Amino acid sequence: MENIALIESFSEFKDDKLIDRVMLMAILEEVFRSTLKKRFGSDDNFDIIINPDKGDLEIWRNRVVVADGEVEDENSEISLSEARRIEPDFEVGEDVSEEVKLIDLGRRSILALRQNLISKIHEHDNTNIYKQFKELEGELYNAEVHHIRHRAIILLDDEGNEIIMPKDKQIPSDFFRKGENVRGIIESVELKGNKPAIIMSRTSPLFLEKLFESEIPEVFDGLITVKKVVRIPGEKAKVAVDSYDDRIDPVGACVGMKGSRIHGIVRELGNENIDVINYTNNLQLYITRALSPAKITSIKIDDENKTAEVMLKPEEVSKAIGRGGHNIRLAGQLTGYEIDVFREGVEEDVELTEFSDEIEDWVIAEFSKIGLDTAKSILEQDVEDLVRRTDLEEETVLDVMRILREEFE
């Protein structure tokens, strides 16, 4: 009963860690053998008998009877007189099995054994958590904000598992409060020491792809395929979709009536602007769609160098480039081609950088941010519109326009 009582006292760890009794007993045997090895030098001559149903464990020490005074190894040999105190009819050469009570190991050994057991159960628990989350890599997951740090947010799921979302895995507009529920994808799981480090991401293109699967039934059912996703988190994204069923309009199904289906995804991503386009193997058409909302006049593709020269009317250039160059950058990532934009019929135009001796670099940079990098592209714009779209004062814009007009006059 002493052994049972001690093992039952260890069972609190089973309840805390949701470890079944059979696994607990297996860990116990490993821990006991380690303790026996430390105490007696070897555990080879010990039998450990486990009964997981009763929660009982017996330890038997096996020794050979030798004549009195001839004991060389006290762990594996026992003197005749000592053996006969156990059983009076033992003879030299016979085997003696003697039960070892846990309490006989001493208080210090039991405390060490208990500590070792805690460590082993934690190790087992961490291994299970690692395996569980490794299988969830790339999947949507929900967890609650537990602690907010400067460089990361610590989340806890329903089972109390700790999940980390670093700052660079958060959308710039994300703002979380303690206790708030957060959705992201499990991006990576690594073992650091014996503890699993579970990383959640909301900036990964895969997060947006999984949101499409979650929110759009046709994508979930496989009727619509998400071919590729590229995004600048919190700003803009492009999603190429395709369907093998000609009766289904993949873009229309993903966007929904008046944007009803995609609205929830946009809101989840902090109002990220999402362009959904039809995928096609026709590269010219694919690049044309990728540069939407700009309307393209012509395209010249160089397959060897993976570049595309796109000709547009002057008023379409800023649409193709997009705010901060986001549109053209994402179109390039989506198609795999580096896209160069050219204005139709402006051979006499002059690059804005040519005026760097008269116009300061930071002013030129402000115009470039909105896709205006030549003299004529600026002169075609309205002054008030330029002031609104840039961080420039009206006086500065007027001064730049004066300098540019003088060039052509």
Automatic annotation (TrEMBL):
<dbReference type="Pfam" id="PF08529">
    <property type="entry name" value="NusA_N"/>
</dbReference>
<feature type="domain" description="K Homology">
    <location>
        <begin position="233"/>
        <end position="306"/>
    </location>
</feature>
<dbReference type="InterPro" id="IPR015946">
    <property type="entry name" value="KH_dom-like_a/b"/>
</dbReference>
<dbReference type="InterPro" id="IPR004087">
    <property type="entry name" value="KH_dom"/>
</dbReference>
<comment type="function">
    <text>Participates in both transcription termination and antitermination.</text>
</comment>
<dbReference type="InterPro" id="IPR009019">
    <property type="entry name" value="KH_sf_prok-type"/>
</dbReference>
<protein>
    <recommendedName>
        <fullName>Transcription termination/antitermination protein NusA</fullName>
    </recommendedName>
</protein>
<dbReference type="Pfam" id="PF26594">
    <property type="entry name" value="KH_NusA_2nd"/>
</dbReference>
<dbReference type="InterPro" id="IPR058582">
    <property type="entry name" value="KH_NusA_2nd"/>
</dbReference>
<feature type="domain" description="K Homology">
    <location>
        <begin position="307"/>
        <end position="384"/>
    </location>
</feature>
<keyword id="KW-0804">Transcription</keyword>
<keyword id="KW-0806">Transcription termination</keyword>
<dbReference type="InterPro" id="IPR036555">
    <property type="entry name" value="NusA_N_sf"/>
</dbReference>
<keyword id="KW-0805">Transcription regulation</keyword>
<comment type="subunit">
    <text>Monomer. Binds directly to the core enzyme of the DNA-dependent RNA polymerase and to nascent RNA.</text>
</comment>
<dbReference type="Pfam" id="PF13184">
    <property type="entry name" value="KH_NusA_1st"/>
</dbReference>
<keyword id="KW-0889">Transcription antitermination</keyword>
<dbReference type="InterPro" id="IPR010213">
    <property type="entry name" value="TF_NusA"/>
</dbReference>
<comment type="similarity">
    <text>Belongs to the NusA family.</text>
</comment>
<dbReference type="InterPro" id="IPR030842">
    <property type="entry name" value="TF_NusA_bacterial"/>
</dbReference>
<keyword id="KW-0963">Cytoplasm</keyword>
<dbReference type="InterPro" id="IPR012340">
    <property type="entry name" value="NA-bd_OB-fold"/>
</dbReference>
<keyword id="KW-0694">RNA-binding</keyword>
<dbReference type="InterPro" id="IPR013735">
    <property type="entry name" value="TF_NusA_N"/>
</dbReference>
<dbReference type="InterPro" id="IPR025249">
    <property type="entry name" value="TF_NusA_KH_1st"/>
</dbReference>
